[in-house]
Specification:
Length: 396
């Protein structure tokens, strides 16, 4: 039975980073994945350009940008492996990149460059990569772990679980990491789809359907949390960066509010229109500042006929409220099928923040998405993967 110092389950971002770091320390490392290729979620990320980190995913700037039952848990790893450190590796490999918006860094070329870089670093570190291989069982005794694979049985001193969450099941996502956590006595927090489009009941969807494909700048809020980015209407409901962001905070039964004129005084705009173009219908006025079909829908919802010149201040205030805080009530999300990440996971109370080790199971580690740490959209989850993989790789 082959023996390794470290066996890592999952050849995604976190797993490959952990393999590189453990291998650099001279550890014998076996990295296992059931997929045909390593880094499949990296390949499809960022529209195929890989939003590989965010310059704001640092302890000082990104402190509130990672969701967890214990939001402080992520800070240790993030403080020791920073975006600048990953950027230096990217530069070393001659990969060109650009900042899009809000600190998001994307490759100029295809995302496969990042995968090639990681595979190259693994080869240099002496990592053994085995693909198209499933994990059938894991057991532990005083000497370490026994892992039954579909192709062989191996033993290891340390086992790193980097199997991800439940998001994008068509790429092979499964609950294996959660099963292993439960098997070894670790607690789980509630898991749910995150960074995911929101859906509506049939009646509301019928009204929104004509808007499918239309995007507009907006500030979308849920309670005290708000995101200013693009809002996209779809045939199922709402998507776009602003919606994906707020979905991590939204819960069934809650409403969201949409400011359709970010940083604009809607009251001033309406009063100016009443004075300058008094004979226009409200839909026409709204169509001057919003996509025409959206303006028509809002006008239908307001159900205020007549010319804007005849609108009282009270009626204008109703229109202003609609523009600045349009209230919508989703009934659900598109689920794990399209979710970019899984919210929740292995309870961080049972993990060491510095090493990602299970507190009560020597030699066992949980890194990346499988742990209860979820970042904002825009490179934060990749930075968590790099940082948590790096942390485990220093000690496993």
């Amino acid at each position: 039975m082959p023996h390794y110092d470290v066996v890592i389950l999952g050849a995604g971002a976190a797993g490959m980073m952990a393999a590189i770091e453990a291998g650099r320390r001279g550890r014998s490392v076996l990295l296992v994945d059931h997929a045909r290729y390593a880094g499949e979620k990296i390949r499809i990320s960022g529209g195929g350009r890989c939003n590989f980190t965010n310059i704001n995913a640092t302890v000082d700037k990104g402190r509130d940008r990672f969701l967890s039952a214990n939001p402080r848990f992520a800070l240790s790893a993030l403080s020791r492996y920073t975006p600048d450190m990953f950027i230096a590796l990217v530069r070393e490999h001659g990969i060109t990149f650009h900042e899009k918006t809000l600190g998001q860094l994307f490759c100029d070329g295809p995302a496969t460059q990042i995968i090639t870089m990681l595979l190259g670093e693994m080869r240099k570190a002496g990592v053994t990569l085995v693909l198209e291989t499933s994990v059938e069982s894991v057991s532990r005794d005083e000497s370490g772990f026994a892992v039954q694979l579909s192709t062989a049985s191996v033993t290891a001193e340390s086992l790193i679980v980097a199997t991800g969450g439940k998001s994008i099941p068509k790429m092979g996502a499964s609950g294996l990491g959660y099963q292993l956590a439960t098997q070894f006595g670790l607690r789980l927090t509630e898991t749910r789809p995150a960074l995911v489009p929101l859906t509506f009941e049939a009646g509301a969807l019928e009204k929104l359907k004509p808007l499918s494909g239309i995007a507009t700048p907006a500030i979308v809020s849920h309670g005290r949390t708000a995101f200013e980015e693009a809002l996209l209407f779809t045939h199922r409901g709402l998507s776009g960066p602003a919606i994906l962001q707020i979905s991590s905070y939204w819960r069934e039964g809650d409403a969201i509010a949409v400011d359709l004129l970010p940083h604009r005084d809607a009251g001033d705009m309406l009063r100016a229109a009443r004075k300058a173009t008094p004979k226009l219908q409200v839909q026409t006025v709204l169509g001057n500042v919003l996509p025409k079909k959206l303006a028509q829908l809002l006008g239908d919802e307001l159900d205020m006929g007549g010319m804007i010149g005849d609108f009282s201040d009270k009626k204008l205030a109703v229109v202003e409220a609609m523009l600045k805080a349009w209230t919508l009530k989703p009934v659900g999300s598109e689920g794990y099928r399209t979710a970019e990440v899984t919210l929740g996971g292995v309870d961080t109370r049972d993990l060491d923040a510095k090493t990602m080790a299970a507190r009560d199971v020597p030699g066992l580690y949980f890194i990346g998405e499988v742990a209860d740490v979820t970042g904002w959209l825009g490179g934060y989850n990749f930075q968590w993967a790099w940082a948590s993989g790096w942390a485990a790789g220093q000690v496993a």
